[in-house]
Structure formats: structure tokens, C-alpha cells
Amino acid sequence: MKRYLLCAAAAALASAPLVARAESKIAVIEMARAIAETNEGGRATLTLKSLFDKRQVDLDGKQTGLLKERTELEKRCKAGLGKAECDRGQEEIQKKLFDLQQLLMQYQGEIQKKQAEATQPMFQKMSRIVERLAKQKGFEVVVDKQAALHFKPELDLTELAITTYNADTPGVAPLTAQEKAQLAAMPPPGTPPPPPDPKAAKKAPPAAPKKK
User: Fold this and answer.
1) Into how many domains does the chain fold?
2) pTM metric for this prediction
3) Distance separating alpha carbons of residues 24 and 191, to the nearest angstrom
């Protein structure tokens, strides 16, 4: 009996440090926010938004012109324009609609490419910083915050990683108050922006009037 109690006590003593050690060596980080809220990441986000807005304005202008052209054709067809002319007008609008859809895809690809080009180097740099911080603080594992169901606030490296990243990139000027306000008005990091969507693509072209 005595031997059993000693074994049980030894097992308890051996397991207790393991639990404490496991709990103290796991940290979390919100990687998307950590990158987006650095000076470099915030400025890159604003640059991409500026490009997105320009492309959206271009698409909106082409869309408005196409809708106007379609409305005019519809009026003319209802007013008695010949079937051949109506059919030809429909074909032209369909072609312009196809071209607009192709331009939309081109702009989406352009923005995604520039986003990857801007984000990848920052992700690698932030990964190295996280590794360095983990070694300094004795963490063996750092997981993304989204994968953690529960954690203590002191295990979150996000703010420290942002501060360290900015300190490691002194050549990048701090964000201005105006830039911070613009970023605050945008969706949270990790939320994909809605793609430019020409509304004209959702509407059918006018039909030629039927002959009585």
C-alpha cells in the first residue's frame, strides 16, 4: 500500500510541471491584424484601396454608359425600329457587356496580384519577428488567434509584434492621423473587399419588338 501511495505521489508531481509548462509555452497572435496595423501594412492597405477605388470608378463609368445605351435602344425598338436594327443593337450591347465582364476579371486579377506582392514580404518579416519574440519569451508554439478557443490576454503577442515590426522598419514613417482615420473606416483585417461588380451584367438586353 505504501509503495502504491509513493508511486501515485511521484506520478502527480511529475505530471503537474508538465501541465504548467505546456500552458506557459503557447502564445497566440492575430496575424492579419498584426500585419495590417503596422506602419508599412497600413500604408499598403491604403495604396490598394486607392487602386481599387480607381478601378471601380472606371467600371462604374463604363457601366453607366452601357445602361444608357441599352435604354436608348429599348426606346427606339419600342418606337418601331426595325427588327434587324434591334438585333444588331442587342449584339453590340452583348459584346460590350462581355468586354465589361472581362475588364472586371482583369481588374480583380490585378488587385489580387498587387495584394499578394505587398503582403507576402510583410508576412515573412512578421513571421521572423514572431519567432524571435517566441524565443525571447520562452514560447514553444505560437498559433493564430482564430485557432484558439480560449487564452489569457498576456499570451497574446499581437500588440508587441506590431510595435516590434515598426521598430525594425525605421525607414517607414508612422501613419498620420488622417491615414489612421481612413483605416479605421475600413472593414476589419482579413475581410475581403467586395469585388467591383458591374450591375449591367445582371440585366438582360432589350428584346426586339414582335411583328404583328
Assistant:
1) 1
2) 0.71
3) 31
